[in-house]
Amino acid sequence: MAVESASGETAAPEQTAPPRRPRGRNVRWSIITAITVLTITSYLDRGNLSVAAPVIRDDLGFSATEMGVILSAFIWPYAIMNLPSGWAVDRFGPKILMTVAALLWSIAGAATGLARNIATFLGLRVVLGVAEAPLFPGAIKATNEWFPDHEKARATSVYIAATQVGLAIAPPITTALLLAFGWELMFVLIGALGIIGVLGWLLVYSKPEKHRRLSREELTYIRENQRTGGAEETSSAEVGRQWLRLFRYPTIWAMIIGGFCLQYVFWFYITWLPSYLESAQHFSLKAAGLLSALPYIAGGIAVIIGGRFSDALVKRGMRAMDARRRTIAGGSLLTAIALAATAMSSGPAMAVTLLTVGMFTYSLTTASYWALATDVVQTSTMVGSVGSIQNFGGFLGGAFAPIATGIIVDRLGGFVPALIISAALLLVTVVMYGVLVRRRLPV
């Protein structure tokens, strides 16, 4: 494992041979399985309203504007609550926070089936956004406790890939349940899946030192190959002081800005890809819906590849923080090139191909984007906070992307300038992570 000097530079590796994985059962991967199940259920709860929206409008008489307000009610609470949720995860640990959060988002999702007016829908979507905010900070905290440095990005890539799976499977699953049982019971059934995920999490997770099924060999393997491992219990006041102190460091602001630009592009895909294929490339509605799945399929594969690539750099002796930030910068640069090429593409087939390539290269960054939070701090105490602050910036970008793209398309003459601006924002991401995120935080 590489050693970092006080100045932040990488010293010679302490070992030349890669660490050997323990034989037999590897309990740490059951933790990742439980997180992955929770991730998929959370994305089903996020996406089911979009599918049911036309039916709900017909049944309850909502206007398009009213439905739009309801659909957007999730995003802003989620973004804002990333900040305190990271603090809470660092203070109370991932088991408690993720259990409470998953129960709350499952109940809110199920209760949506009982809603009959705009105020109730808005309130439940706000609760859903608040409840889902601790998911990824908690997942990163758990990953940091359970995995050695050279496996963290690979482990993270599994449940991050589940977000792509969630985006791909949410429409067909939700549609099937809606057609079979109606929209009211559809919400209840998907909420019940979340309760099952919570039970699995409670059965599987505890701190490594307290886990009954963890062998001494696996615990040794985890701890001896970590720069930061399980954290000691920290007082609320101390976590609060350290949390505020994080905003003094240029590294944090570079991660916020870089995350904003990176997630802007992801939400450009999520919210505008079908419209681009229909209006700019003249595909039918059905064809656009089918072709929109291709980038997410490619992205799910790329998340795993990117995580393994980043971990391979660490195993070869590169400082973990450098492996993560360089993977992010490299993937962002390739995506910027793909989006700029899409803007200049000459035909529909080429545009779809380039957009799929762009999501593939974008997704190479995502495991490292989250794993970086575990490597940028010198101790594990503030891992959840750093991850949530970065994701706050990212989700602000995600919240602005749909609005900004609509304005750009209307006022600047279509999707070509929207694609060019997205590519330019990715160049900002390259600078943030490739140049400015260099020194670990002294907290």
Automatic annotation (TrEMBL):
Give yes or no: UniProt keyword Membrane: yes
Q: Which residue ranges does the record assign to the Major facilitator superfamily (MFS) profile domain? A: 31-441
GO molecular function terms attached to this record: transmembrane transporter activity
Please give the start and end residues of each transmembrane region: 27-44, 60-80, 92-112, 118-137, 158-179, 185-206, 251-270, 290-307, 328-345, 351-372, 392-409, 415-437
Name the domain of life this protein comes from: Bacteria
Record localization: Cell membrane
Protein's UniProt name: Sugar phosphate permease
Q: Which organism is it from?
A: Saccharopolyspora phatthalungensis
